[in-house]
């Protein structure tokens, strides 16, 4: 999959496992100009229309993540933001090079990734410190 990340304008190239390709193929049949049928190139023409639609869908996804977490007995506040941090943290803890993590996240430079990972480490330390009280 090759795409240009909107936020950084950076070209992202990632391999797609067969299982993911099956999901993409399923939804690509009903999408209109996009990978998934979230945006419609005929309906969502302006930047504001696209932004509003993405905001609405992100809210629905986060709501469904909270329901899924509750069903699984997970007490953490699960969101797409938390999923992104978890993805990066698991890679870091698995010994993956920060340059590769940076590329996977679509960051424009390593400093951004380092700040991103450090901020999450600080949150974990803060949470652990609560156990001392």
What do these coordinates show?
Helix content is 59%, strand content 5%. The chain is built from 5 helices and 2 strands. It has a two-stranded antiparallel ribbon with strand order 1-2. A hairpin with a 6-residue loop joins strand 1 (2-4) and strand 2 (11-13). The longest helix has 25 residues, at 47-71. The radius of gyration is 18 Å and the shape is globular. The N and C termini lie far apart (48 Å). 4% of the residues are buried.
Give the SSE layout.
Elements: E1 2-4, E2 11-13, H1 18-28, H2 47-71, H3 80-93, H4 98-105, H5 110-129
Antiparallel strand pairs: 1-2
Helix pairs in contact: 3-4, 3-5, 4-5
Along the chain, the helix and strand elements come as: EEHHHHH
State the domain count.
2
Mean of residue pLDDT values: 87
Main β-sheet description:
2 strands, antiparallel
- Kindly state the percentage of residues in helix: 55-70%
- The helix-and-strand class reads mainly alpha
What is the molecular shape?
globular
Total count of strands: 2
How are the strands ordered across the major sheet? 1-2
